[in-house]
Write a sequence for this structure.
C-alpha cells in the first residue's frame, strides 16, 4: 500500500499484526528509517512468519545490501506461501529500488493507494478515537478542532491525548470554550 504521510499506512499495518495475533498467527512488523537501518540479517528466520509487515520500504532504496536482503527474504517467504504487506510513499514502480528483480516483485501483488480522509471522515475518525480513549467529542467541537487546529490524523491523535488529559484533570466535558482554553495553554 502506498500514500502520503498521515494516510494511515502504519495504522493499517499495526492493525494487521494485532489481528494476526488474535488469530494465533505468527507476525512481524518493522518500520524502516534510512538513518538507522539495522543489520540486514534481521530477515534471518522471518520467512517462517505467517505475516510480515514492512513500513516505509522506500527507506531502503538505493542501499544495495538491503535491497538484496529484501529480495532474498521475499523469495523465501513467498515460496512458503506466507503474506508480506509493505508500505511506501509511492507506487512500487516509482520506488528508487535499483535491484530490477526486487522492483518487479514489489509490483506482483495487489497495490492500494491510501487517500487522505476528507473532513467528514476525519471527524468520524476523531469521534471514534475519542470514544476509544473514553471521552466524547461533540460534533461541533470536533469540527472546530479540525478547522482550527489540525488537518492530519497524526496531529489529531496527538491533540486527543492532550485533550483527554485536560478533560480528566479538570473533570469537565469538552466544549469549544474549554478546547480553546486547552489549546491556548498548549501554545504558551
Amino acid at each position: 500500500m502506498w500514500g502520503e504521510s498521515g494516510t494511515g499506512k502504519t495504522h493499517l499495518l499495526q492493525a494487521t499484526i494485532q489481528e494476526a495475533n488474535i488469530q494465533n498467527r505468527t507476525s512481524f512488523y518493522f518500520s524502516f528509517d534510512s538513518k538507522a537501518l539495522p543489520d540486514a540479517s534481521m530477515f534471518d528466520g522471518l520467512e517462517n512468519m505467517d505475516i510480515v509487515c514492512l513500513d516505509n520500504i522506500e527507506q531502503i532504496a538505493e542501499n544495495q545490501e538491503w535491497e538484496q536482503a529484501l529480495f532474498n527474504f521475499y523469495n523465501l517467504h513467498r515460496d512458503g506461501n506466507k503474506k508480506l504487506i509493505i508500505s511506501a510513499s509511492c507506487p512500487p514502480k516509482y520506488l528508487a529500488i535499483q535491484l530490477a528483480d526486487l522492483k518487479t516483485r514489489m509490483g506482483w501483488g495487489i497495490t492500494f493507494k491510501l487517500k487522505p480522509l476528507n473532513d467528514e471522515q476525519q471527524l468520524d475518525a476523531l469521534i471514534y478515537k475519542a470514544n476509544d480513549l473514553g471521552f466524547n467529542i461533540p460534533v461541533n467541537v470536533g469540527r472546530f478542532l479540525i478547522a482550527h487546529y489540525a488537518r492530519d490524523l497524526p496531529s489529531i491523535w496527538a491533540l486527543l491525548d492532550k485533550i483527554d488529559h485536560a478533560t480528566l484533570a479538570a473533570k469537565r466535558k469538552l466544549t469549544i470554550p474549554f478546547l480553546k482554553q486547552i489549546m491556548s495553554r498548549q501554545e504558551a
User: Anything to note?
Assistant: The beta strands are 27-31, 51-55, 83-86. The mean pLDDT is 90. The two ends are 39 Å apart (CA to CA). DSSP finds seven helices and three strands in the chain.
